[in-house]
Amino acid sequence: MSHHHSNNQSSETSEKNLFITVALNIFITIVQIIGGIISGSLSLISDAMHNFSDAVAIVITYIALRLSKRPKTPKYTFGLKRAEIIAAVLNASTLIIISFFLIREAIERLYNPNEIAGSLMLIVAITGFIPNVIGAFLLKKGSEKNLNIRAAYFHLVSDAISSIAIIIGAVFIIAYKLYWIDPVLTILIALYILVEAYKILKESVDILMMSNTEEINLEEIKSFVEKIPGVKNIHHIHLWKLNDNDTHFEAHIEVEDMRVSKTSEIQKIIAAELHNRYEINHTTLQFECELCNEFDILAHH
Question: Least C-beta-crowded within 10 Å: which of 40, 182, 205, 252?
């Protein structure tokens, strides 16, 4: 059995940035709760709840980030890399729950509208918008390659979008006294959050279920492997992602009767091709000669 390893990519988002975003979100939450209560704006209060969930999400992100860096042990031979995926599931699930809560509250407010202090609503929304943009900027780079940080980043982006919607709503309330626009905007914001959170949740669950998340064509792999001189067939393939950065591949390779050194050469060719074509960075191959009775791509046991 042979292995191909690649160095784990470290997170590009510093722990300092995570702490800054937590502080910003706690500040925004306090300001928006006070402003929402005084102005009577449901969208401000709902946005404050979302901001508080952001702070919690970022704390979870930070903890998961630290756990994922812990070394491998005899018990956890992969380390704790999936801590970040679990964190992404928690954060996305929280967003989905909040979305349904906001929709319910907004529908109730539509049937029972109340007068809203538009000017205060506008000031508080602008106050919340700026820190959210700063926080999102701090996490943007890390979100590109890390699902855990992407979930936290989306918390902040969705809040920034919420603030923009609230600012627009406040302008309409000030100018036209359209108080119904507040719950309508809340529903639209919640629906947007719901859709995006579902995408993150689905991707996270796919990784936890060890699925072929990139939908790599196994027949294509079979085709190029079986063209290698000395290889009879490839079967019993397993392909999964450990986390955002580590994709694992294992398979049985039936070969002609040959020296072990020759199988090492074949292994290097296969591992290199898998890495170049599909960014698979951990390949485990079991070479055999007339050992298996089943030669399907997927094992049935």
Answer: 205
Per-residue pLDDT, 213: 65
| CATH label, 218-288, candidates 1.10.10.10, 3.30.390.50, 3.30.70.1350, 3.30.930.10 | 3.30.70.1350
User: And the tokens for 19?
Assistant: 């702490």
Q: Residues 82-110, buried b or exposed e (16+ Cβ, 10 A)?
A: bbbbbbbbbbbebbbebbeebbebbeebe
Q: How far is CA 255 from CA 45, 244, 262, 274, 299, in A?
A: 66, 33, 10, 19, 18
Single pTM value for the model: 0.75
Res 5: pLDDT: 43
Structure tokens at 155: 């918390």
- Say how far apart CA 256 and CA 57 lie, in whole Å: 54
